[in-house]
Structure formats: structure tokens, C-alpha cells
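ok trying again, last paste got cut off:
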Amino acid sequence: MEKTPRGTPVGVDDPYEFAGVCDHLTGEGTCRYAFDHYEHDPEFARERALEGYECPVADPETDETWADCPHFRSRNRDRECVRCGLEEKRMAHSDERPLLEEHHLSYDDRLRPSSEQRTATSEDARGERLAHEITVYLCRWCHAKVHNSWARITDDAAPDPEAIATLEGRRSRELDESGFESAARRYDRDDRE
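nice, full thing came through this time. structure:
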């Protein structure tokens, strides 16, 4: 199983199974990274410019995969836990801890310790190629289970009872706020307290 830089498990053997489309890929199949951040990797930007900024991975006629691109990044945008399916419910103007947390399946070189001495295409001390940033969302209960045990993201899991209670509590508070109460009654009630 893949591990974080601190040695805790991330819950998958192959992070690329959970990787979506690259965050830098445009709807036209071009690489926005090469165009917007050419100064970070001029050689890569020149190669893409010669090809009209086309993403080689998005081209169905090539055999390249996301793992072949030195600047691949995939962050999940779905606001639900990939393990148990719990949906996010954020309360406006509240400091409450979110139900969902971003979980790294693989870390970009810039997120690793001592990354200032490496480039995105370099190898680490063990000779392994450095990984890409691949993230998904996990509820904080599944997140703890994955990092603190051998729980996997692919486990058939139901939301934790505490997670359901927290979600329902937020929903009921949201419904209370959406109910109509005249300002006169609200302020009258506040004055009496």
C-alpha cells in the first residue's frame, strides 16, 4: 500500500486508479500548465508549444498515461467521501470543522520534505520516480481510519454513526434558519432573554 512521507498508509495500492482528468487540461485538450507556467519548466513548455500546447495524454492515438506527464495533478472536486459516500454540509458563517477533508493518495514533489533540492522529474534517494499530487475527499472519520489502520478507500463502508449524527444536526439547524420568523418576534424574544 502507498504511504505518506510520514509513513502512514493512504489506503490504495495504485493512486492512478483514483486519478481523474489532469487539473491543467482544458476542454480543448490543451495543457494550461505549459502555457501559464512556462517559467517553471521551459523545456516542457517548448515541447508543448511546438505541438500547439496539445496534451499528449489526452490524444487517443498516443500510449502515454497520466503517470508519464511530469506536471500531472488531479484533485477530486466531488464533495462527498469516496469511501462511505457521506456528503459535505457546510454551515455558512460557522467555524465548525468540515465533514470532509482532502486526502492525498500521492504527493507532488513540492509537498515532500526537502523538495527545494529536487525538480518534478528528478528521482529520490532510493531511485524512485517522484509522484504526482492526487487527492480525493474523505469524511474525517474515514480519513482517520485510513491513516490510523489498514482501512482501504475501496472498502465497502457505511458512514460512521457519529458522522450521520453530525450531518443531521447541521441539516436541522439549516432548516431552522430557513424557516420564517418575523424580525419583530425575533428581536422581542432577544429582548426578553
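cool. The two ends are 57 Å apart (CA to CA). Confidence is low (pLDDT under 50) at residues 111-130.
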